Amino acid sequence: MSRYYTFNAADAVEYARQFGGVDDPLSLITADEIGDGNLNLVFKIRDTQGISRVIVKQALPYVRCVGESWPLTIDRSRIEAETLIVHYEHCPQHTARVIHHDPELAVMVQEDLSDYEIWRGELVKGKYYPQAASQLGEYLAQSLFHTSDLYQNAEHKKSEVGRFLNPELCLITEDLFFTDPYIEHERNCYDAALQPTVDELRADISLRIAVGDLKQRFLSNAEALLHGDVHSGSIFVAEGRLKVIDAEFGFYGPIGFDPGSAMGNLLLNYCGLPGLVATREAADGREQRLQDLRDLWLSFSERFLQLARDKTQDLAFKIPGYAEHYLKHIWHDAVGYCGSELIRRTIGFSNVADLKNIADQEMRHECQRHALSLGQWLIITAPQIDDIEGLIARIRQNG
Ligand code: ADP
Ligand code: MG
């Protein structure tokens, strides 16, 4: 018999008292359920002063935003905790710390990050965090390099691939990223005014073939332990600081998927800005997003290459030029996955505030069409885009 039961606030407080690692456990007295995510319960545990001290997060046996009609494995809680623990080992400064977790109860205690803000909310308001993108690049390089074949022993890696199979959550990505947006599906979500653009997208055979390739690599290329859901809603920022949370989609997949998803979210904001803030602010914000894109890729790629120079032991991978060669593949994948994130977040199941929040309907549709055409173009031309400056130049040309 499983010990699983759904926590209420009192259960969350009791759990935090036992496993929260605080010096004065009895001072923890209340829990507010603050989950704004799609999937799980998130409790903020406060002490007698009303100060929040730790977070208790529990997976429900279904997709929260849909209900019990969409069942979902609670093993995702183990995957989330174990992914964060591995990533924390390699990049503690940018990974949320898991203090305790219990796979059977599908629950974990995490450090409280209430003094940070969710990056997406800040981006939507037009607030710039100049260090965030390079810090995210650092997180991605550390977590992905250290779990890749360039660093891990091959035998150990195979057992890790098994530990992080995560088939149910991967299936969600496989469907929502690479299948649903390109067919008629009840999970898709967009205004009727976009239908002609969506029809054109679906009729574009070279796009569909390139998307097939992206899906095939997502299914088959177990390159490193991905976070699997690096969007700006899974990233906490504060002045000069950044922490990544919410790793329940973690699995061994193609390295380019994580930086590609992150780049896609920066570009969703780039597309939405003219509808979100005043004209002058939007122009400045767009320049900041392009700078973020550059900072993200340069910090990721430079750290990845430096780690390869310093730490790769495998004689086949150590030869001069190999890491650079491998990074080229990662780059082309990242550009493709970036494009697929743009499309699926515009017309698929999980829309984003960067576009959804645009009140003026005409303007919203214009920004959404921009996101779709940029996504389409990125996916098709990914193999020909050589580097980050080439990408930025082309984004500017696209309007
Ligand atoms: P889900 O898996 O359901 O998407 P998230 O991990 O994204 O849940 O958390 C939902 C929300 O709960 C976040 O947007 C954030 O506001 C809050 N939250 C999550 N983790 C923490 C944390 N460690 N510290 C403070 N707030 C958090
Ligand atoms: Mg979330």
UniProtKB/TrEMBL annotation:
Gene3D superfamilies: 3.90.1200.10, Phosphorylase Kinase, domain 1. The keyword Kinase applies. It catalyses: 5-(methylsulfanyl)-D-ribose + ATP = 5-(methylsulfanyl)-alpha-D-ribose 1-phosphate + ADP + H(+). GO terms for molecular function: ATP binding; S-methyl-5-thioribose kinase activity. InterPro entries: Aminoglycoside_PTrfase, Kinase-like_dom_sf, Methylthioribose_kinase. Its EC number is 2.7.1.100. Pfam families: APH. It comes from the Bacteria. Residues 33-284 form the Aminoglycoside phosphotransferase domain. GO terms for biological process: L-methionine salvage from methylthioadenosine. ATP binds at residues 40, 57, 111-113, 246-248. Substrate binds at residues 229, 344. Pathway: Amino-acid biosynthesis; L-methionine biosynthesis via salvage pathway; S-methyl-5-thio-alpha-D-ribose 1-phosphate from S-methyl-5'-thioadenosine (hydrolase route): step 2/2. Keywords: Amino-acid biosynthesis, ATP-binding, Kinase, Methionine biosynthesis, Nucleotide-binding, Transferase. Belongs to the methylthioribose kinase family. Catalyzes the phosphorylation of methylthioribose into methylthioribose-1-phosphate. Homodimer. This is Methylthioribose kinase. It comes from Rouxiella sp. WC2420. The gene is mtnK.
